[in-house]
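*** Backbone structure tokens ***
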Amino acid sequence: MCGSETGIFLTIYGKSRKSGRLFLEKSNNEVMFGENQSDVFRVNTQSVGPVTKIRLEREQLGTLCYKWYLRRVVLTDLNNTSWMFFFHCDRWLEDKYGDGLISVILPTSTNPVDIKTLVTYNVTIFTGNKQYSGTSANIFITLMGTLGTSGERKISNGPLNKESETQSKVESLYLGSLTKIQIRHDNTGKSPDWFLEKVVVDDNKSERTYTFHCRQWLATNRADGKLSRILHLGNKIIPDFSDDDEDDGSRKKKKERQDDDEDCEFEVVIQTGDKMNAGTSASVYAIFYARSINSNQNNNNKTNKSNNKYNNYSNNNMNNDGKHNLHQSKNKILEMPPYKIEFKGGKFSRGHLDVFNIRMRRRMFPLDRIVIGHDGSGVGSGWFLQNVKVRSLSHNKSQIFNCNKWLAKDEDDGLIERTLYSEDAKKSSGNPSNYKVVIRTSDVLNAGTDANVFIQLCGSKRETASLELKKSTKNLNKFERGSVDEFELQADRVGSIKKLKIWHDGSGVGSDWNVQDVQIIAVDDDEEEEDDEDDDDNYHNQNAKRHHSKSPKRKNVYNFQLNRWIKKSDGVVEIKEGSKKNEQPKARYRVQVRTSDVSNAGTDANVFVQLCGSQKQTEKLELKKSAKSMNKFERGCTDEFDLQADHVGPAKYRVQVRTSDVSNAGTDANVFVQLCGSQKQTEKLELKKSAKNMNKFERGCVDEFELHTDHVGPIKRLKVWHDGSGVGSDWHVQDVQIVVDENDDDDDNYYDRRKQKNSKHHKKLYKFVLDRWIKKSDGVVEVNEGASQNDKNNKNGKNDIPKARYRVQVRTSDVSNAGTDANVFIQLCGPQKMSESLELKKSAKNINKFERGSVDEFELQADPVGPIKRLKIWHDGSGVGSDWHVQDVQILAGEDEEEQDEDDDDYYDRRVRNHLNNPKKKLYKFLLDRWIKKSDGVVEVSEGTSQTDNNSKNNAKNSKKKKIQTKYRIQVKTSDVSNAGTDANVFVQLCGPQKQTDSLELNKSTKNVNKFERGNVDEFKLEAEYVGPIEKLKIWQDGKGFGSDWSVDYIKVFMLLDNHDDDDDDDDDSDDDDDYQRQKGKKRNGNKNNGQNVEEEFTFKINRWINENDGVVVVASEESMKKKSVKSNNRTNNYKQYADDDDDDDYYGSYRRYK
């Protein structure tokens, strides 16, 4: 429950703008954000257009702290009710739960059941090795990619040590290719200063690794004083130049390198184009990249040529172990880390020149490229950039980077970030290259698109600008279903093409597009020379090519398999060259064709078929070779053809789920599975309706479900989970079996086997053994096909180990309410293995087991575990009053348990031979003497905690002491306010100076039939353990019934004093103070002749609401508060009185009583 003292703020992001920070108040409910409650709010803000995402933030407004688990948010535009957006969250917004964050960014969805799966990113932080480089602060990170950001996540609670590696996980929607991260700390702790070396992020979905170098301080009193940094992909560590010889030449080079490492001033001039609405109000930034340099570079061209020739020769002279010789190892390629600059204070208005002075390292010049863009914020963020001019004041040279394109989502190709190359870099790269782009649109329903399509070629040296595919040379209407389009483009030379980026602007009706593949043909006569200029094997070939200037141009072909839908919301889709498409598993078809028995019915033509299913259709299939006739399609003949093609309809899977036969194994939750095959996996599938049982997933039952979904090939793994809904959602699964048709694309004899089996429909069975509990907190449970539970024993061939016999004696303590009706389980733990969970079902001594003061005995059989070292014990909390007080547990093993050596391979063989032949038994004792509640979970106790004989005698003597019981009368006044009453079950606990009673339920009121009604006073008579003067009262309720919140005015407790003998008052266990005992005795003696029972009254003023989430409310009595006040005033005088009694023999005893 969130509570009224917590503020929730909402920010709405649309395509045109974003709203302000909106405070959510005035819900349709009196108490906002209650458990299993929907709250409706109305907020007023300017129109933001179609909503893309929202941000929810939580702030603490009061002193109370409430936990809050948010399920989802539904946003409706009241001016246009058809605009309804769904935001799925399913996470805690609480600093002590989940990932500890109290703000979250949620992406939009127009489908209420469309829950986007999360991707796990593994983040590794490397702390530097400088002095005091570790930190005590908390670390936060934000991942940013081509498809969005993760929002800020807390990944470390500190401290981080020097030269340490810290790993954490970040779950988010898929962000595409990561481009940058933002990392910071909160400057808390004794030593918050932090030197960050680098951050490595592993993308588990795309299996890519991103490295973000930093090598800077995040500290207020070091370097630039920043606590937050944005790290871009591709940052390199500045190399450490070290020289072996310190001669004059090396010292001069070292001095030049030191000059290059110094910062110098650059002037950046940004020219906004002179077009309508060309200016922007967004925040503009640029990333500057230096050119790769050669550490052994010489300005003399002749020397360069000779060095290249020498290096080409030395490449052929490599050592046998594959390492280069010394001469080549000095020729290192170095890269400078990029610089990101945010241009603050610029106007960027139409036709305006904005001039900025920045500082970068001197060696950054000349620049290789600039990545410039904006954040899309503000009204009218679109920007037309003409060019960028960069001038190095130390070199007194300039570079020009032309753009002449829009950086706007609704203009040109929709990009708001572009890569610009300088004019001299373009000249040095030679003439532009010619590319032929061949695109195949898939032959599926509605595969075509009318949107404008763009691509970008990413090569080994650079990448092109965005290229629009405007005019197809083959078709008038491009990108139609099943068609092949060709485009001829001119772009910069990029070297060998490694990746392709493709996207569209979503224009036109039905813009979603299904692409089969893309082929790029590069016509380049210099690329081979450029790529291989350092290749030693081709050195002489290059010289020969220079003499044949009329040699034909070479064509390089690059294939990119997509076979997927591309939507505008997908953004830029990136695919590597040569990547294989995610092929659907092939189906086998046997086609029989009967030619009619009429004149001239046969044909010699090539015949084709196409199979059309409920989901899609196959490609054209030629009927080539008949399995029955040499001459196919003859009059009156029947021909048979075996074909392979895509599945055109859904696959049918029969899923059998066996729920274990253990206590509370069933569940009412919604269960989901996902089938993972050798080539793909299905979407999330819900097991809705069992074909065998009305109530599915009951204890010991087998349920069967029929699922229709895509073909996945042979099933390798199964994912299963549930949503935790319903009461007692925890579920114990024995196994899952999946039956499918055995039409396997890897089986060449499928049809032959079908004939041998008389055409019976042959099935294949996949079995997944779980034998475990599945909770909502476990998330997705993944199990491999054919998994077995006793892998170790099965591998060693020792499956026939006989069961060991155990006799278990359980002693329930002789205290009030010590017994339990819950189901109790134990687990025996030996030195090498442990038994399965064993339920203590039937006691050999008592019909009602686990009663107060009783001893129960159970006979169990389980796998031998060796000498029992530890015992695990727990219960399921079932029944009324499930809390259980256990005195001890004794286990008598059925045979002598010998110690097992880790290297003793014959241990189990010897156990099999000697099983039941050795009459020796061994007793193991586990002393608990404690309460066990369901909330305690598994309680673990070690063997050998038994006490000595003397202690045992003392314990036996103490256990025989009779506990004093007394009678209590409790009056409860419910407040006279609206909805003050409750139907919940109320419990109290009375606390004295040394001990407290058990939990007491206020069950039956002696004054009212309906207890706890508004303004009523209820009275309850209880009997419980005597605890002395009542100083505190604990009260709580279980939240059951409608409107369980309860407002209490006061509670009075009357304790009957004339209920036990004076001898009982002298019991050492009570330890009550002497003054109270004397006063109590006087009251009893004074009223003994009158025959009246004397009661002591204790008043507790509460005057507050109590609900289930408050837990236990503790209130001090008015009498104890007055008593403490009097004692504090007289403490000094009393201490002096005791200190002056030097002749008092009982001085120390009196002082102890005073203390």
About this structure: The first strand starts at residue 6 and ends at 14. Residues 587-645 form a domain with the Lipoxygenase-1 fold (CATH 2.60.60.20). The CA atoms of residues 954 and 1111 lie 38 Å apart.
